[in-house]
Amino acid sequence: MPIDINHLQYCAPDEFGLGHRGRGLAYFADAYYFPNQDITLAYLVNYGADAKSELKPVFLEFRNKVVNLIMQK
Predict the structure, then answer these.
(1) Three-class SS of residue 63?
(2) Model pLDDT for residues 35-58, shown as the tens digit of each residue
(3) 30 near 63, Cβ under 8 Å?
(4) pTM of the complete model
(5) What integer pLDDT is reported at residue 72 of this predicted model?
(6) What integer pLDDT is reported at residue 3 of this predicted model?
(7) Beta-ladder partners of 31
(8) What element of type H or E holds 64?
(9) Where are the alpha helices (DSSP H) in 1-73?
(10) Per-residue pLDDT reduced to its tens digit, 18-37
(11) d(CA 69, CA 2)
(12) Could you tell me which residues are beta bridge partners of residue 18?
């Protein structure tokens, strides 16, 4: 069975995470490992925003702020 690995790339070549994201009408779930920072990030949001939802931009802002903290920005 193949493994689905997503590559989460940010501003610089050393700013990336490897992991998997899950989206649905009822949840968000992400798990990423940032090897250059030796940090693992995992979260589950019990509210879906894969469809038209006012929560989607809030979730994306949350994720970007957390990753910026990991990258020490």
Answers:
(1) helix
(2) 888 999 998 888 776 667 777 788
(3) yes
(4) 0.69
(5) 79
(6) 41
(7) 20, 42
(8) helix 55-70
(9) 55-70
(10) 888 887 778 888 888 888 88
(11) 32
(12) 7, 33
Strands 39-45 and 28-34: antiparallel
pLDDT computed for residue 64 by the predictor = 84
Q: What CA–CA distances, in Å, run from 21 to 4, 6, 9, 41? A: 9, 7, 14, 11
Say how far apart CA 39 and CA 29 lie, in whole Å. 17
- The residue type of 48 is G
How far apart CA 30 and CA 27 sit, in angstroms, is 10
Angle at 30 between CA 5 and CA 44, to 5 degrees: 155
Q: Is the pLDDT of residue 5 over 60?
A: no
Look up tokens 């501003």; give the residue.
11
Helix (H) or strand (E) holding 8: strand 6-9
Comparing 29 with 8, the larger pLDDT belongs to: 29
